[in-house]
Amino acid sequence: MPPAAERPDAAVRAARRWGDRLGPVWPRWGDAIVGPVLLVALWQIAGTVLPWAQYTLSSPWAIVARAWHDLPLYPTNVAATLGEAGRGFLWGNLVAIALALVIVQAPRVEALVMQVAIVIYATPLLAIAPIIAVVLPGDEPKVALAALAVFFPTLIATLLGLRSAGSAPLELLHTLGGGGRHALVKIRLPASVPWLLAGLRVAAPGAVLGAVLGEFLGGDRGLGIAMVNAMATLDTPRVWGLAIASSILAGAGFALAGAAARLFVTWAPPLDVAPSITRLTGAGGGVWLLRRAALVAASIGVILALWQGFIVMFHLSPFFAKDPAAVVRDLVSGPQAPEARALLVHGLGATVADAATGFAAGTLVATAVAVAFVMYPRLERALMPAAIALRSVPVIAMTPLLVLLFGRGVLGTTVITGIITFFPTLVNVMQGLRSASPQAVELLALYGAAPWMIVWKVRLPSAMPALFAAVRISALGSILGAIVAEWLATGRGLGYVMITARAQFQFTILWAAGMLVTTVSVVLYGLISWVETPVLLRYAPGQARP
Q: What is the dihedral of CA 93, 96, 98, 99, to 10 degrees?
């Protein structure tokens, strides 16, 4: 008999029994076909019936016909994007895994390393993309943006996995004389593999998206460049054909990571879940608050130091690369300082509101879908391709359609931001739900508990560390998503301020807006940590960090 961790739990067995009723007439792989076929059918109807579809949506038949005509266009562009995404995927993940190992082995450096990671992840693309294009030669800006897209999600997932090792094995190893290196090799690394592969599933579509967005900066080949050219000529079928090609690349990466998980990982160690209330040692009091405040202050110092160091290291022109002192001087005593400050404050308020609504919507929907996928695996096989497509199709290609459907107001911004935050939350929460103790699930099933009760009593508490990991990624991503939505659709907020400032060579406002976004992201990350500590001490003490 296989060990308990490898046996399917009661909910999975029930889902399989439901699937077995269909018999050999409906094999399990057929589920993966139903979702895409249904989506294509609905798409064909909408693209044929709706009068405005030819300018924003195009029917699948028109897209296929255009792609067949454009067939010579694809090999070179697909190869270029695949090469950039692959290199970015490799380097971004290697750096993330290495930093996660350093943090686990030397916890004292975590605060500094994580602040640098947050600054890198939260710095808006609109502010740094032109500078990256100037600093790095050739295709390296695309590789850099692909690496930035995968770095932070993989770092968070790897840290979660390394810390998912149970306290009992670690204490036993310590009692037997094992040191930190032995704990890392013997316990932490094996425990981290399922979580790392979950992070790679998020990273694969992110690498493709980062490479495509990098190609929007310019160049002579790549799916993003071809997409920009097609949008310039209003060739909607070609735009969607190229977007679908990028989705296929992202889906292939996601499928490879999933296949690696099924091939190499036959276990998913449950997180250290404690059903009883744990005393919040170290999670309260004035000392803790002072330490958090000092960490936020140090984070702002890191932002300023990296900002100044980047300008000095690459000898950037002061015409467009404004240092912190110049920005502060212009905003405090410059001739248009009051107007600039008012513009930034108003834009920041709009961006925070847009990000909050998009984050809430994306997180709630992703959590609900993750629960449904875990309870009914057939839904996952049928609908996951659509979720991957949402992650990998560049938002700039879907924005005209989304604006037409949902408008340029709060609803449209919420949808665009929610799409950006949806996929990382979905994958991480699914992994967390599946990490629940098989013994606890079996026990409730033996007592006749309904599947939703098993989810509520066992799976959701076990998924708390994964949920907070997803929140760390998605909360920062929602700010970047709001900036993109404001840039492409709404004409308000810091996104619009930044794109207007860049077009008008108002680089002080551009850099100040980027600093505001990064600072807000760092403060938000600190607030999430403040909420996370007591919650994890209640549900997963082994994952909590006082």
A: 180
Q: Is the dihedral of CA 427, 433, 437, 439 positive or negative?
A: negative
**85 backbone φψ class: left, alpha, beta (φ>0; ψ -120 to 50):** alpha
Q: Does domain 41-310+321-543 correspond to CATH entry 3.10.290.10? A: no
Specify burial of residue 63 (Cβ count, 10 A radius: 0-12, 13-18, 19+): buried
CA distance 430 to 373: 8
CA angle 485, 487, 492 (to 5 degrees): 90
Distance set, CA 28 to CA 22, 147, 219, 374 (Å): 10, 35, 43, 16
Query: Count of CB atoms within 10 A of residue 125's CB?
Result: 22
For residues 455 and 433, the answer to whether their CB atoms sit within 8 Å is: yes
CB atoms within 10 A of CB 216: 18
Alpha-carbon distance 483 to 284, whole Å? 35
Token representation of residue 425 = 């939350």
3-class SS at 281? coil
List pLDDT tens digits, range 216-272: 766 778 888 888 888 778 788 888 888 888 888 887 887 887 777 777 665 544 444
Cα 238 to Cα 54: distance, rounded to the nearest angstrom: 12
User: How many whole angstroms from its chain centre is CA 401?
Assistant: 23
| In the block, residue with structure tokens 């629960």 | 371
